[in-house]
Specification:
The chain is mainly α. It has 5 helices and no strands. It is globular. About 10% of the residues have low confidence. Pfam families: HTH_3. This is HTH cro/C1-type domain-containing protein. It comes from Streptomyces lividans TK24.
């Protein structure tokens, strides 16, 4: 739920409509409709890691900015790939 709300907050802060953000994602090579984005923001659709990365990039932020604070590992040896794998587990339940 945190990620869904974070996507919506970031999108609104940038003044983007769902249609505009979905179009940005599609232009980046990850086809997305505004309906899919709407369902993602309402947590009625899973946000897989591929979607998360592209949505974050389209918003101009790192994917970790859309994740709950507790998901980020504190240890410097953890890579972003480790973080994404852990986050995917959290997102998918």
């Amino acid at each position: 739920m945190h990620t869904a709300r974070a996507i919506e907050r970031m999108r609104l802060a940038l003044g983007l409509t769902q249609h505009q953000l979905a179009a940005r994602c599609t232009a980046m090579g990850r086809p997305m409709t505004n309906t899919a984005l709407s369902r993602t923001e309402r947590a009625h659709r899973r946000c897989d890691i591929d979607d998360l990365v592209v949505i974050a990039e389209a918003l101009g932020v790192r994917a970790t900015a859309l994740l709950p604070a507790g998901v980020c590992p504190a240890h410097p040896r953890h890579t972003e790939v480790d973080l994404c794998c852990r986050a995917q587990g959290d997102l998918l339940g």
